[in-house]
Amino acid sequence: MSFRKVGIVENKSYDTDIRKKVEKLLNEHSVDYFQLSNDGLDLVISIGGDGTTLYTQSKLEGTPIFPIKDPSRSVGHYSSASKEDFEEKIEKLLSGKFYEDYLIEDYLRLKAEVNGEELKNTENKELDAVALNEILIGKDLKNMLNFDLVFGDNVYAGQRSTGVVVYTPSGWSGYAKSAVGRKIDDGTFSLVCIAPYSEDITEKIHQNEKELYIPKTFVFERNEKVEIINKNDSRIIFDNDTNNRSYKLNKGDSVKVACHEIPARFIRFV
After folding, report:
1. Which of 97, 140, 156, 204 to pair with 21, CA 20 to 30 A apart?
2. Which domain holds residue 150?
3. Which of 54-68, 77-91, 197-211 has the least mean pLDDT?
4. pTM strictly above 0.85
């Protein structure tokens, strides 16, 4: 596999020396580099934390991503390298062999349609409405969301909770885990309601001889869809990006969430 055209995106608050060193390595290997785009790039190097990575993947359709993190500033859940070892790994990537030195792993992503139309570029033409971690539907912490849930032959009408999170296996460790969503298998996606009021969307467990009610986790296969029928004004937010990928929902809107056809792809080393 050859990487001749590489895009670079960076968190502007990160150490500028990282980008300079990346550019130096690319020049040494006669690799052309550009700003981030979805136009014929072989690879995109993302310099920053998880937020930068989530932004990067929302702009791409199948292009592999090489995220570089600073461990002192970010967890870097999807990162392929850190500021301590990225030079060695870029060298290995550009000089090495596919499968022997590095791999490309696919990560499931989610998309949404509202009233039958795919939600994409409706309010911010720069970013796509695709989620690597989760899609959140909600109002605010002060008000309950009223909605119906529909999947397959199952209808859960008249539900109430603070919000609804639809999440991927890789996104479980973020928002979904905080919402007490269960860890799920690769190739599936899941839905959990935040602070549910309705019994249909809770489940009873026993702990220390006491009965507790926790949010119920609904799990779906890759080819399934889940529909949330919105009963009041709210918003749909992709990957917790409230600044760029947040869209208004009106009362009566039908939101259908499914797996995106094209996964996010990340460089991993053998």
Report:
1. 97
2. 110-261
3. 197-211
4. yes
